[in-house]
Design a protein that fits this description.
Blueprint: H1 2-22, H2 29-49, H3 55-78, H4 84-103
Helix pairs in contact: 1-2, 1-3, 3-4
Length: 104
């Protein structure tokens, strides 16, 4: 159950990062509201997953999901640049997440 909650927390991290970008510096009420709700839920689920998962594992996986997810969302929805170096960096993060999961 902790791993499931951690993945949901990571997905919510992607949502709040995207909605924060859409809030234009917290000047748009709808996007700002989504950002704040998603942040609270994401942190709450991360905290809950840390009841049974080690701190280093939970935090690393949570930030990794958020980082790679935000990278993909940026490319797909915001048309951010996609270079070989950025793809390599994201691939290395995913490799680290897999190793972290296997070590737990």
């Amino acid at each position: 159950m902790a791993w499931f909650l951690l993945v949901i927390a990571g997905l919510l991290e992607i949502l709040w990062a995207f909605s924060m970008k859409q809030s234009e510096g917290f000047t748009r009420l709808g996007a700002t509201s989504v950002t704040l709700v998603a942040m609270v839920l994401s942190f709450g689920l991360l905290s809950w997953s840390m009841r049974t998962l080690p701190l280093g594992t939970a935090y690393t996986v949570w930030t990794g999901i958020g980082a790679v997810g935000a990278f993909v969302v940026g490319i797909v929805f915001l048309h951010e640049p996609m270079s070989a170096m950025r793809i390599l960096a994201a691939t290395l993060i995913i490799g680290g997440l897999v190793l972290m999961k296997l070590s737990s």
